[in-house]
Inverse folding.
């Protein structure tokens, strides 16, 4: 007879595994910050890894919580010292994910979530094969433009660029594992929560 199935042993082994790495991407203005804040409240055991960026803070953003804001010189130093899991030029600024923070979160058994662009998401997938990539899309380009304009933070030139970038990002959805359309925050958060919980229950090979 084959070896008896030991569910307790399987459970203990699963608990010793590092947490998942969740990547959340989507066009600027789609509502990633809003849904992520709600998701962290609805899904215990999920920690956001705060991105470094060279851009200036927007009204209401808290340094160290929303982003780590650094100079272009400091950002380049971090690149040279190999401190980023991934980094990219997005719109007119640079963004990077600190490798040490991702590793620290996962080693505790908690899930690390990254809010990064599609280019960064693809880079992460190349380096971390078991990363889970989720793309948050707008219901339509018209709705995305409305959301961008309602922020009152971007010039007409910036809005045009963000819409063009959005079309390019949406064209790369096939590189992602899941697609969630953000019609409304409550429904979107529940769909994201279900994905995270399903990944936690995945039987590892």
């Amino acid at each position: 007879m084959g070896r008896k199935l030991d569910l307790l042993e399987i459970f203990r082994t699963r608990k010793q595994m590092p947490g998942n790495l969740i990547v959340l991407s989507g066009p600027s203005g789609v509502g990633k910050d809003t849904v992520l804040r709600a998701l962290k409240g609805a899904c215990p055991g999920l920690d956001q890894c705060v991105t470094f960026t060279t851009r200036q803070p927007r009204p209401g953003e808290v340094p160290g919580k929303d982003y780590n804001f650094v100079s272009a010189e400091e950002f380049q130093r971090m690149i040279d010292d190999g401190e980023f899991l991934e980094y990219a030029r997005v719109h007119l600024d640079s963004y990077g994910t600190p490798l040490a923070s991702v590793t620290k979160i996962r080693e505790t058994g908690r899930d690390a979530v990254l809010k990064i662009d599609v280019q960064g998401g693809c880079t992460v997938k190349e380096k971390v094969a078991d990363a889970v990539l989720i793309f948050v899309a707008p219901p339509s380009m018209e709705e995305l433009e409305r959301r961008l304009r309602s922020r009152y933070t971007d010039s007409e030139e910036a809005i045009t660029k963000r819409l063009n970038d959005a079309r390019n990002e949406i064209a790369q959805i096939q590189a992602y594992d899941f697609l969630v359309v953000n019609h409304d925050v409550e429904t979107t958060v529940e769909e994201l929560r279900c994905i995270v919980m399903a990944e936690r229950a995945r039987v590892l090979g």
Remarks:
- The two ends are 22 Å apart (CA to CA).
- The longest strand covers residues 84-90.
- DSSP finds eight helices and nine strands in the chain.
